[in-house]
Amino acid sequence: MGGFEGHLYPGLSLFFYGLYHARLVFRASICGCPVQYVPRRPWDKGRWARLQQIYCVGLVKILSACILVAQELHGIPGHFVLITKMYYQKNFLYRKQWQHLTMYMTFFLSGCVDVVSQNLLPQRRAALEQGAQALGVLLLLLLMVSHTQDTEGVELQSHILLTQAIFLLMLVVIAELWAPNVPQLWLMKAFLYMTIGSWLMQIGFMLYKPISGHKWMDDDQNDIVFVTTFFCWHVVFVAMIMVWVYGFSFWWYRYVC
User: Fold this and answer.
1) Which whole-number Å values give the CA distances from 243 to 33, 201, 229, in the listed order?
2) Residues 52-78: pLDDT tens digits?
3) Computed over its alpha carbons, how large is the radius of gyration of the chain?
4) Fewer CB within 10 Å: N-end or C-end of the chain?
5) CB burial class (10 A; 0-12, 13-18, 19+) of residue 249?
């Protein structure tokens, strides 16, 4: 996730993934059904009937992970290797890039599990999907903790707030393993995914393309303190979006569908 694009694209992916979960939990609450098994309209029989019944969430995860990997590899100068043997020394290279690729691979594997569970197995294994998701978030948290070791100032403060949000998300997805159909957990999961995605995009703008045109200064205490204020604004912004999504979902499923 180096550079502006390295923060923007993953942020968009996580934000829309959270938005999908928000729509899912609101639809379930309005229709009065379990969150994981929302009823679907019966499709007309025909040539494309089987194709229309395919769940696309796992496929979107896989495609997003592949795009992020391609974007990460495109930004690496020279040969992408793990260890260099120059001057009879063995040094690890591109440590942050390897961390980024590991993060993306966790989402890729989670997408593969979703595809197998939802489309290939005779009966859906929701616990398997949630287990893969929890493992991915746990690995993301571990990598993010080590990702901030050589940062300082504005970058350090922004990534600390990001790590705290990921930690809360990890608690939610782990609790979901024992309570899979609790709407409150799904609501918190959607909220945290959207917050993490929104804040990740904001980090890209702060560090690489500040909207004001003035660079954030690591030695300015006001800039460091204001990072937390910006994060709080993002939390409120995401909460307002979720209220709007609920209102739109209520109108759509009660009066349109």
Assistant:
1) 20, 21, 22
2) 556 778 888 899 899 888 888 777 766
3) 20
4) C
5) buried
| Tokens standing for residue 193 | 């995914």
Cα gap 182→61, rounded to integer Å: 23
Length of the chain: 257
- Write the Ramachandran bin of 215: left for phi over 0, alpha for psi from -120 to 50, otherwise beta: beta
- 80: tokens are 């992408």
- Closest by alpha carbon to 13, among 100, 95, 104? 104
Residue 83 has pLDDT above 70, yes or no: no
Under DSSP, the state recorded for 41 is: P
Distance, in Å, from the CA atom of 79 to the CA atom of 73, rounded to the nearest integer, reads 10
Cα–Cα distances (Å) from 22 to 17, 191, 227, 248, in that order, read 9, 7, 26, 11
DSSP state of 75: T
| Per-residue model confidence as pLDDT tens digits over 104-117 | 898 899 999 988 88
Euclidean distance between CA atoms 216 and 237, whole angstroms: 22
For residue 21, count other CB atoms closer than 10 A to its CB: 21
Q: What phi and psi values does residue 91 have, to the nearest 5 degrees?
A: -120, 140
Distance CA 257, CA 245 (A): 16
3 state DSSP class of 123: coil
Helices (H), the chain: 3-31, 49-52, 57-74, 95-115, 126-147, 153-178, 183-207, 221-251
Please, which residues have CB within 8 angstroms of residue 64's CB and are 6 or more apart in sequence?
13, 107, 111
Return the biggest CA–CA distance within the chain. Answer: 72
Provide the token pair at 237: 């912004």
Task: Say whether 15 sits in a helix, a strand or coil.
Answer: helix
